[in-house]
């Protein structure tokens, strides 16, 4: 009976914990979605500022509100909340997660993924008839595979571009509120103050945000509650019938009356769903249910009420659309709303900057981006990271955007291009997921693709008109980042492919070491390899040319898994290779794990402990004296000194190769030459590092 009571209490405790965690996720998701959807740039008054009408009418504003309502509903709710959130890759969302999901379920990657066991690769031998026609086409078409990889990378790079445009447009729009009650404040002063705020924000990044992050939630709560309250006040006072604009007939009427001019205005209305893709990308930080509840019960009604109130205000003040957000705010609460809006803009900027750091860190950890310095700014939150190179590049670009464009309207042109292109990429990848993985009937998959392609295609055609008015900037930045990532990924995969093809076996290594000219020298050597199913050709190159190998040689492979953390009990995997003093070691870690300190011990000590345990467990195979001798050899080698050997391989591209290989591998060599080494991330002393060079002939 007592046991039953204890078990029941345990179950109740777990239920209570799950409820608490669930509500915590919902609150955090609401705060984050408030950031990505709630910026000043997405307010309807900002969109109305794009109107080039000399005399807009009430029907024009009703048409714009109807467009925004249905865009938010169709793209924000139907596409992302109802469909896209179900297409996660081990809980992760975003364009690259969709691509990773496709690669795991079909042989559509250019090359085998890095450090992926054969068990996890899609089985190409399974029933061919079970494959869809689309999967078969992609698997047999290398050009399509390259294009698919590139557009997936491009989508992720455009999200990184948000880290440039969101701080610029949010802070500039908020600070511009000074010019309402203080007409003497010049446009240049607003730009200078905005640039100063951003510079200060970027300079503080190296200290981390953990000490002030407790302020973020109250700020976002104040923003997401105050704006709809002002909205409710506005439509109750000016036009309670404004919700009639939810009828799609107002959209049709708007385009019939305004024709081409109405089509041009879509470039502004696209900003109302700027947070939809970020909501999908944030899936890994919360969970699907938390995001859905936060959106449907909090963010969505808050935005609709705010938009309705702003529309009702404009219908009674037809000429106030040019003054942006602050004309909508009642005079008694103007300054409190100005403070809240400015703080919200700073929090939104911080969120996007932190997201850019996180994306860069994950890309580096998964070997999709050239190595940059990553610093963890919190002992308690390993997701809090800072990248000096990324930070200062973002700062220069953000300030340049403010000083170069000078107005939120022109920055909005650039912002809209990024937003809608990422969404269109998601539509393409999600359609492939439907057909290849979900096995959705083709009629429904086509219905989804055609519907959203037309909707987003119309938006794309509209924002492209603004290409020369600022839209080129994020597109150019995203293309440069995408080319860098594609070149780095392709080069790394070609290098891995060469090493797998030319790997040496344990028997071959034994033959090399049995040569009388090869000496075993005192000390311990960690020889780092990119492959785990064989020995890298760099090892044979080292032995042949150096005529030596340390008494204890550990062939180590660092394996980053597609998870945030690896349990300490599963971090190391060691084995004896059948040659005296030669061992294999796989170090597994998640993209949010620290490698410089492992459970209080340094890297070498931690690996040595595991090796001793491995040797001691072979008591049934070897006499005790041999085991003690092997452990003594291990300890002596460590006491003599440790050297960490890393290969520095370069491609030798022959004339027979295609122009594509020559171009992309040339880019990779340039990036590899100028990026950081892989070993400094482990904090090895400089005097213990060694690099050996080798030419890989392609």
What does it look like?
The chain has 698 residues and is of the alpha/beta class. The chain folds into 2 domains: 482 residues, Up-down Bundle (Amino acid/polyamine transporter I); 196 residues, no CATH class. 59% of the residues lie in helices and 9% in strands. Strand 5 and strand 6 form a beta hairpin. The longest helix is centred in the first third of the chain and has 36 residues. The protein is elongated, with a radius of gyration of 29 Å. The relative contact order is 0.12. The N terminus is likely disordered. This is Potassium transporter. Belongs to the HAK/KUP transporter (TC 2.A.72.3) family. It is found in: Membrane. Keywords: Ion transport, Membrane, Potassium, Potassium transport, Transmembrane, Transmembrane helix, Transport. Potassium transporter.
């Amino acid at each position: 009976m007592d046991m039953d009571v204890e078990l029941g209490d345990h179950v109740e405790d777990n239920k209570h914990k799950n409820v608490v965690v669930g509500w915590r996720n919902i609150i955090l998701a609401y705060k984050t979605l408030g950031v990505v959807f709630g910026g000043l740039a997405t307010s309807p008054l900002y969109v109305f500022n794009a109107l080039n009408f000399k005399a807009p009418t009430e029907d024009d504003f009703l048409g714009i509100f109807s467009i925004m309502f249905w865009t938010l509903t169709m793209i924000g709710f139907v596409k992302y909340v109802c469909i896209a959130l179900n297409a996660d890759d081990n809980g992760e969302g975003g364009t690259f997660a969709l691509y990773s999901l496709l690669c795991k379920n079909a042989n559509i990657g250019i090359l085998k993924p890095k450090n992926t066991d054969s068990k996890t690769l899609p089985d190409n031998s399974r029933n061919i008839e079970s494959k869809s026609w689309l999967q078969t086409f992609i698997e047999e078409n290398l050009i399509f595979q390259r294009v698919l990889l590139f557009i997936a990378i491009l989508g992720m790079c455009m999200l990184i571009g948000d880290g440039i445009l969101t701080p610029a447009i949010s802070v500039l729009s908020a600070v511009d509120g000074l010019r309402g009650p203080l007409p003497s404040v010049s446009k240049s002063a607003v730009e200078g103050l905005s640039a100063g705020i951003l510079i200060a924000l970027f300079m503080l990044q190296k200290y981390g945000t953990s000490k002030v992050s407790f302020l973020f939630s109250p700020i976002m709560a104040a923003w997401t509650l105050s704006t709809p309250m002002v909205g409710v006040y506005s439509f109750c006072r000016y036009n309670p019938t404004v919700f009639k604009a939810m009828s799609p007939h107002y959209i049709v009427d708007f385009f019939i009356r305004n024709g081409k001019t109405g089509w041009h205005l879509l470039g502004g209305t696209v900003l109302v769903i700027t947070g939809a893709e970020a909501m999908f990308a944030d899936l890994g930080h919360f969970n699907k249910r938390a995001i859905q509840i936060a959106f449907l019960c909090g963010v969505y009604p808050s935005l609709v009420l705010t938009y309705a109130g702003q529309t009702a205000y404009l219908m009674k003040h037809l000429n106030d659309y040019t003054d942006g957000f602050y004309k909508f705010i009642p005079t008694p609460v103007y300054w409190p709303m100005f403070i809240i809006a400015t703080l919200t803009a700073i929090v939104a900027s911080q969120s996007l900057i932190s997201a850019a750091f996180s994306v860069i860190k994950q890309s580096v950890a998964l070997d999709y981006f050239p190595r940059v310095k990553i610093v963890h700014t919190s002992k308690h939150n390993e997701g809090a990271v800072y990248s000096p190179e990324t930070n200062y590049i973002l700062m220069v670009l953000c300030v340049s955007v403010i000083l170069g464009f000078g107005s939120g309207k022109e920055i909005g042109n650039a912002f809209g291009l990024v937003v809608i292109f990422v969404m269109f990429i998601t539509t393409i990848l999600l359609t492939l997921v439907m057909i290849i993985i979900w096995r959705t009937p083709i009629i429904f998959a086509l219905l989804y693709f055609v519907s959203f392609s037309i909707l987003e295609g119309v938006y794309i055609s509209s924002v492209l008109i603004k290409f020369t008015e600022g839209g080129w900037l994020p597109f150019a930045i995203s293309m440069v980042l995408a080319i860098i990532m594609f070149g780095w990924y392709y080069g790394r995969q070609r290098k891995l492919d060469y090493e797998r093809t030319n790997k040496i076996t344990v028997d071959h290594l034994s033959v090399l070491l049995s040569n009388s000219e090869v000496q075993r020298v005192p000390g311990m050597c960690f020889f780092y390899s990119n492959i785990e199913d064989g020995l890298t050709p760099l090892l044979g190159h080292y032995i042949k040319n150096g005529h030596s190998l340390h008494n204890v040689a550990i062939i180590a492979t660092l394996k980053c898994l597609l998870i945030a953390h690896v349990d300490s009990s599963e971090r190391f995997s060691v084995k004896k290779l059948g040659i005296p003093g030669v061992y294999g070691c796989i170090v597994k870690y998640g993209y949010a794990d620290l490698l410089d300190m492992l459970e209080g011990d340094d890297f070498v000590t931690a690996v040595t402990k595991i090796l001793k345990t491995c040797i001691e467990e072979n008591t049934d195979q070897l006499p005790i004296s041999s085991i003690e001798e092997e452990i003594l050899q291990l300890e002596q080698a460590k006491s003599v000194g440790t050297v960490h050997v890393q290969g520095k391989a370069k491609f030798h591209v022959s004339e027979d190769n295609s122009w594509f290989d020559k171009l992309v591998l040339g880019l990779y060599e340039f990036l590899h030459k100028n990026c950081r080494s892989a070993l400094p991330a482990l904090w090895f002393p400089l005097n213990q590092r060694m690099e050996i060079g080798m030419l890989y002939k392609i």
